[in-house]
């Protein structure tokens, strides 16, 4: 007979697992910049020809799309910095949820090159996703169904942050809750009146990301999208936060969350009976 789930031995095992995960989390939190102060400097976004795919997902999925495009473009992992960029259109403090946050990822070049043309040529073989696909498909299954677009991004002055990067979920949390809000606030306080967007390029080898927030021409960086306030207003309050997707994410990141879920409790009650 299987040992009851609420037995002392099982509880002890659970506590040990939680302790190990807590230590791992603390290590990851530290190496991802959890205790690193944010220093914003003034710099310049280089601009160039941007070939990209855009979508709506949780910002944690953005690096997955960036890696997919880099692979299709023949960009090796060690070459990602200053080539592979992601643009984040929304303020995560306002627009939250699994399929609401808008971003675009792609390759940036001084001018359209053979690699850019190669990516754009793939559009002929892409059968675009349906509304049902958008809901049902996983992120990895959705990426190949999104068509490539192109836009020339201007060279412009920008607020710049360099921040540690581990290509893990803690780095995604740092981006969402520390980097993007800080840069958006800096642009909004600059008095330039331009829409705030954040652009990121990362080096896995150097474990560092460079984040930009242009002080001007924000409309161009929106790639034809409405700004965050307009988008949030169109969504309505009920759609700004999708808690069910957050629970799914937490269960993937912290498996022990399942222990406290309603399904788990129901199973425990059944075992006790």
Automatic annotation (TrEMBL):
<protein>
    <submittedName>
        <fullName>Uncharacterized protein</fullName>
    </submittedName>
</protein>
<keyword id="KW-0472">Membrane</keyword>
<feature type="transmembrane region" description="Helical">
    <location>
        <begin position="12"/>
        <end position="30"/>
    </location>
</feature>
<keyword id="KW-0812">Transmembrane</keyword>
<keyword id="KW-1133">Transmembrane helix</keyword>
